[in-house]
Design goal:
mainly alpha, 108 residues
Length: 108
């Protein structure tokens, strides 16, 4: 049963590369997404500074776990990366809006 599953017809090195790209998406993409979620929520939540940061960090941990699951649940590695970027763009925009609201500047 060594050649069963999603990568049954691919040579061994291609299966290894597909898994490596998914691991990179889970680790790198998940970290980036979690950071953006934490940053965006810390900037826009109408709480005290410490409470907003804690809420953002907790949401970031959930986003990291969800991103890791998504990286291996997607049909292809490309779809996994597209999902990571697609989820990160709204949080990046939200972080820019939060920065603008708090300082009056979009970029410091």
């Amino acid at each position: 049963m060594p050649n069963s599953g999603r990568f049954a017809k691919a040579p061994d090195y291609r299966r290894g590369m597909a898994i490596a790209v998914r691991v990179a998406a889970a680790i790198g993409g998940g970290y980036g997404l979690a950071s953006l979620v934490a940053l965006a929520l810390a900037l826009v939540l109408p709480l005290g500074r410490m409470d907003a940061v804690l809420a953002g960090m907790m949401a970031g941990l959930i986003a990291y776990a969800a991103a890791a699951v998504w990286a291996f649940a997607a049909r292809s590695a490309l779809q996994a990366w597209i999902g990571m970027v697609g989820a990160a763009v709204p949080f990046a925009a939200l972080a820019l809006v939060g920065q603008w609201q708090s300082t009056g500047q979009v970029l410091p």
